[in-house]
Design goal:
single chain; 167 residues; mainly alpha; Arp2/3 complex 21 kDa subunit ARPC3; 70% helix
């Protein structure tokens, strides 16, 4: 029951931080970090895969609603929620049984960073590809993906450090 409150609070807090603070800040004029994907990173792997897909879609849809972005966040969050389980299985060689006690925050830093980086780059590439939706804008898509991903990854790592420090 404690997990339900913890993840519900995290879900709502990340939405509010994204909408109220981060959507109104542009670093270097066009870099906008997307901290809300932290929820998908830390959500327990022992839960039903369909549940995280639904939550991720709702998360992205709420961000889209308040960002007036027409569903691109929902599509990007749904995509990374879909690939997160195969990704962690590939990175850490985990099996279904391991996920009953597995905690992403207790993985080696290099593996955690790889996991976060792949999810973040995938999310941002899908998001900016759908936003620009032109092959002629490929360089813009790639540059925004890389720059925004770097800032998002740094923000996620700092947030994880704060979350671990509070335990």
């Amino acid at each position: 029951m404690n997990d339900i409150f913890k993840y519900s609070f995290l879900f709502i807090a990340l939405i509010l931080i994204q909408i109220i603070v981060l959507n109104n800040i542009l670093f270097l004029g066009y870099i906008n970090p997307f901290l809300y994907i932290l929820f998908i990173v830390v959500f327990p792997f022992r839960r039903d895969r369909g549940f995280i897909l639904i939550l991720s879609f709702i998360l992205g849809l709420i961000i889209d609603f308040f960002s007036d972005s027409g569903g691109i966040n929902a599509a990007a969050t749904l995509a990374i929620a879909y690939i997160r389980l195969p990704l962690i299985k590939g990175l850490l060689r985990k099996t279904e049984i391991d996920f009953l006690v597995f905690n992403i925050l207790k993985t080696p830093f290099s593996k955690l960073l790889s996991f976060i980086a792949i999810l973040t780059f995938t999310h941002h590439f899908i998001l900016f590809s759908l936003d620009y939706f032109k092959f002629s804008e490929l360089l813009t898509i790639l540059s925004r993906t890389i720059l925004t991903s770097v800032f998002t990854i740094i923000l996620i790592i700092f947030s994880l450090l704060l979350m671990n420090k509070n335990k």
